[in-house]
């Protein structure tokens, strides 16, 4: 196995681990201990956001976003090299999609951890404007997170197209890649629906890591 294929496979499995952390937080810890039940409303409640900052759930989620961001960059590089000979333009578009997703995840993680530290400093200096500070931080985080989801969906869709052209991976994986377009497209209509990527990505990234190991 080439070292880049191995790195890409490992990156895919890191993404799986990150998604497991996110699902643990979103489906159990946050609704049970932090009161985030309605994603369309509760994440807009600044009192709940203030209470949750620096919690185990938010810190692990932010860390997972950062790890996922770097992993998407490595995965994109590995996939680009794999398909560059057969489809140069498609391979470069795949790298671009993975790069946008990686950037979005990295910025989300930066908002979750160092961004939260900056927000605390600003709240301490401007105690009468604490809610505005949190609103700004939350808005920035929401937008860059959508960038991450859209980039991830594009990556999966681009890989599905290359799979159909080259048969590098099994047909079912290509069809699943088309399904992965749903979170990205839905994010433009109603962003909370885009969080379906948390469940869909586990199968996609896990299978991709396996096939990269097997065929590398």
SSE diagram, text form:
Blueprint: H1 3-34, H2 46-52, H3 56-83, H4 88-112, H5 114-125, H6 130-166, H7 171-179, H8 181-189, H9 197-215
Helix pairs in contact: 1-3, 1-9, 3-4, 3-6, 4-6, 5-6, 6-7, 6-8, 7-9
Separate helix tally: 9
| Structural class label | mainly alpha
Share of residues in helices: over 70%
Low-confidence stretches: none
Mean pLDDT: 96
Total number of strands = 0
Please give the alpha-carbon distance between the first and last residues: 5 Å
Element-level helix/strand string: HHHHHHHHH
Which percent band covers the strand fraction? under 5%
What radius of gyration results from the CA coordinates?
Answer: 18 Å
Give the overall shape, derived from the CA principal axes: elongated
Major sheet attributes: none
Summarize the structure.
The chain is built from 9 helices and no strands.
Describe this structure as you would to a colleague.
The protein is mainly alpha-helical and 216 residues long. The protein is built from 9 helices and no strands. The model has no long low-confidence stretch (mean pLDDT 96).
């Amino acid at each position: 196995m080439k070292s880049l294929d191995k790195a890409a496979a490992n990156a895919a499995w890191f993404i799986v681990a990150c998604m497991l952390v996110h699902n643990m937080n979103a489906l159990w810890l946050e609704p049970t201990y932090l009161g985030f039940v309605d994603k369309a409303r509760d994440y807009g409640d600044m009192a709940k956001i203030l209470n949750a900052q620096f919690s185990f759930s938010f810190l692990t989620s932010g860390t997972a976003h950062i790890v996922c961001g770097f992993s998407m960059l490595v995965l994109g590089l590995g996939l680009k090299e794999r398909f560059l000979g057969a489809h140069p333009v498609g391979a470069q578009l795949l790298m671009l999609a993975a790069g946008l997703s990686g950037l979005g995840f990295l910025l989300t993680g930066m908002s979750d951890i160092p961004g939260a530290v900056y927000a605390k400093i600003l709240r301490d200096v401007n105690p009468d404007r604490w809610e505005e500070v949190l609103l700004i931080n939350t808005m920035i985080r929401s937008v860059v997170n959508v960038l991450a989801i859209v980039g991830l969906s594009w990556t999966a869709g681009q890989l599905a197209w290359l799979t159909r052209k080259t048969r590098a991976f099994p047909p079912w994986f290509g069809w699943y890649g088309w399904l992965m377009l749903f979170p990205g497209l839905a994010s433009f209509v109603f962003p909370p629906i885009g969080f379906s990527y948390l469940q869909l990505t586990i199968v996609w990234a896990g299978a991709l890591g396996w096939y990269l190991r097997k065929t590398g």
